[in-house]
Fold each of these.
Amino acid sequence: MPHSAAELVDRLGAMSIERAWDPYTSFDWPESLDPEAEYYMSPELMSLYGTEAYEALNETDRKRLSFYEINNFFSFVLLGERPVVGGMTERMYRKDTMGPITDYLHHFIDEENKHMVMFSLFCNRYLGRIYPEKKLAIDREMAPGEEDLVFYCRVLIVEELGDVYNRKMQEDSRINELVRQINEFHHRDEARHLAFGRAWAAELFERHTQDWSPAQLERFQDWLARYFASSWTDFYNPSVYRDAGLAGGYQLRQEAIAHPKQRAFRAEASDKLVRFFLKHGFLKEAPAL
């Protein structure tokens, strides 16, 4: 039987206190990193993996590509967590979140801010910038409660997808040790955030959508399917390929997105979250990813 959000938060908050950490002192931050010295992302997670373009690269080229891929991944998570901090702050003292929920949101926001510091330190120190994001805007009137549901769905997508990468890279001895540790620390916190996020989003969906019309529900489901697919396209960044010295970045992006191995990877990586959305009615069918 799934736990409600209120049943979870006391335990999650205690774990946050027990496992508190500092992004400035929990890692050894070298002055610089050599993009060609080692792998920075597990090869199987790289956006060109399995494609003809990837197979044509030598070992040094693949290592260099992995350096820019990890910076793109860290940028994706960083920029995905930025609105999480703002959105959680706006919601934490409202009537429906007062009490234990708000108490846990203090931990949630604190940890997300630490994540932003951690990813920013890495990208700004070693890449010199953050790769920008592109997202679908909603330019229509929302149904009652839909703004909250949109917010929490965005949170779940960035955190669920990011955690797939975190879990694989935290155990990969082939990659740079700092990168491995960053993924490990991020996963520890995100496991708690995801448990809360799933429970709270499901409660909000059941609460709000009972008063929606079929048309309102269909519009939300259509937005979520498109947003889910759009989030995956951020992983295929032409700027990454250009920075890694590869020609034809936009063509590489299109070929990678369409490649059967990449399609299979996206489906596998998304499966747990897609099943959650289908089970609770957020989606009426699995989106094309």
Amino acid sequence: MKLKIALVQFARGENFKDNVERMRKILSSIKNVEIVCLPEAWVGKALILKPEDVNHILSSIGEIAKRNRFNIILGGFFTKRENRIISTCHLINSRGEVVGFTDKLFPSAAVGERRFASFGEKLEVFTVNNVKFGVVICVDIMYPEIVRKLALNDAKIIFNPANIPKNRIKLWEHIGITRASENTVYYVFVNNTKTTYPDGRKVMGESFIAAPNGEIVFKADESENVFHVKLDLSTIEKVRERWPYLSDIKNLKTLNNPSMKNIT
């Protein structure tokens, strides 16, 4: 089975409303895919969106999803939930409905997100066309336990919408390859481009996809663009015949053995 996805590498500007309208135009041009993934924080730098702004994004982009018949991973932006600020990534289905969301569990300490944002609470496995996948927002990919939990709950693809500076792309490639191979899943990194990191470093795209065997099977350039990729999901089972890491972990009784408590 092959899954058709699109990665939107977005040249984020300074104005929130302009970013939303430009994103809507880009999404309107996308056809014949099943899942579209946006980068993290494409709406702007560390904006905390008002409820009416969130509703506008969800409804207006939902209309496009319904019209063009694809599912959209919205990438992640800061919203207020019960007097707490949390980075949240919504999933809109091909009927234009919001079917769920997942949180950034660990706000970035490096860029000061923890000064205003709370730790996330929700991690979800989504299903589109009988394919299960998870979304891990930006720096959460540094926590292997998060991806392992999703993979153990049958996620076959891990989408990682992010906003990563150019001098950290090689690090992200190493991490992405590791997460893909240790969990025998596809890893999909979607980045902004032609913008800046909170400390002024350049963010210049280079989104990529790592396959379950640890190979990078797609690498974007620095352009603002929509990249169409077909993921061959049969590769997952072929790799797992050789690398039974997940089934080994599921069957490993030693981790639950009381004697393991003495290990320091």
Amino acid sequence: MKKLDISIEEKLEALFQLQSIDSQIDKINFIKGELPLEVQEMNDSIIGLNTRIANIKAEVDEVDGEIQNRSRIKEESKNLITKLEKQQSSVKNNREFESISKELELAKLEIELCDKKMRDGNEKKNGLTQRLDAAVNDLNLKNDEIAIKKKELEQIELETDKELDILTAQSESAKVNVEDRYLIAYDRIRNAYRNGLSVVTIDRDSCGGCFAKVPLQRQLEVKQRKKIIVCENCGRIFVYPKSKEVEDMNKEVEEVPKVVRSRSKRVRGE
């Protein structure tokens, strides 16, 4: 059947079916879209933690190198003191004695400086070690968490890929009874809104897309299904599908007994 050979009512029904199918596709893609984003964020976090751990380890190595260097200088200063003390015991004049005394004083000050630098280095190393342990712990937790998320994502993809293929095929089939100009408008409107709604019903006298009030006359025209009518506020296409018509009829049937009971009470003066 050619697209131009079907009635407006059939075209509107086809648009509604297309929207229903595409909304199901959107829902699945939304669910799938959140998890990959979470996994990507976790991957970025893990990369950041690995970089932090590498930087901390580099700092620890640098501090260790400084501590070892100060330890070496301290030993050299001790050996120098031993040597100078022997020389001092065999000096021949006061000038040599004073010169050696100054060297001894400098060597002892160097030892004190080395001790201070080594204490500072060990304190810094302890702080870095704590930071390293915390970062490694965070990394382990992230690795456990991302493993769970990846497994969850794989399961969802396994469950939804087949459903997506079926829905995609149904969407393409639903487009057969929709004119190209309406399809262009349909896609344009869908891309304009985050919820992807291009075709909507009127609920509680309001547009099902933007919730703007719809005049009663316009509602009646939509229910007649004789022409394409769009929301004056958001541009979405209005439909009055058969499912909605049946629903409204059932509501009217339910309301009849209530009206009858109300009238009966008034007649009896209750």
Amino acid sequence: MEKVKILFLEDDKEINYLIENHLKNEGYDIDCAYNGEEAVHFFSANDYHMVILDIMVPGIDGYEVLRQVREKGNIPVLILSAKDAESDKIVGLGLGADDYMTKPFKIGEFTARVKAQLRRYLYWNNISQELNPVIKHMDIEMDLNTYEVRVSGNHILLTAKEFGILKLFMTNPKKVFTKAQIFRTVWEQDYILDENTVMVHIRRLREKIEPDPSKPTYIQTVWGIGYKISEV
């Protein structure tokens, strides 16, 4: 099943890492470029459903990358820039960008804008609406479009936070997550006030999906570190 593929241009390593991991957790396939030349190379060698770019990057600037994207087609382009003057937004939108966000930004709003642009593009171009595939691991299936979860064929009703935790594990099947990493990703906050918050949600999630919550089959505790999903 083909994933939606996104090209992301950003020279700030921290922002690049944040966006890359967040979009991967959302089920997207993403290529990250750190300068204009690299972005142009990626774009010429691959087919993308969306481009997200900064304007002020080394080498070829974001405006030139946008111009070359527009020469090839009508895929959505989101500018993510620290330049917040009205004139900058007018130039970016005038050159063909579909949306313009300024830094600093909230990851929730960013994600909503990305999904909105993709929905419109995929709908009007009669491309499959499966923005995110159904994720399968062992006996668990997650539909990231409908937020449905099935375990051994049985429908399981999860809260938003429980769903977010399970999605994090299933989209990163070999990674061990600390409680702080889980909190930062699922709650979208940098600081965890009480580690019990994550532990309580893990316990409730296990009670819903595990055949025997006292002997977890799916969500494993890695003592002294955190949690991960079981290997197949």
